[in-house]
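Appendix B, example 12.
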Amino acid sequence: MAQCERLQGCPFFNKIEHLPKTAKQLATTYCHGDNRGCARLWAVSAGVRPPDDLFPNEGDRALILITQSGKAPGAFLEALPMKDSHAKS
C-alpha cells in the first residue's frame, strides 16, 4: 500500500505538529505502507468521524466509538485479523 490518502489533511497530525518525532514515528507506522492498523482509518471506514485526538494506535477506543455510533464496522475493518482478547496463550 502507498501513503494513506488522508494523511495530508489528517486533523490528528495537525494537532501534534509540535511533536515532530512522535508524529514521524506514528506516520511511518500507520500512514505509510500497510495502514490497516490505523484506528482513525477504522473509524472512517465505518462512517464515524474520528475525534481529532484519536491516536492511530487507539484501536480499542476506535472500536468503542464505532459500537456506540450503532454503525456497522465496515468491510475494511471486518477484513482485519483481530486478536481474540479471550483466547488463552
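The two ends are 31 Å apart (CA to CA). The chain has five helices and no strands.
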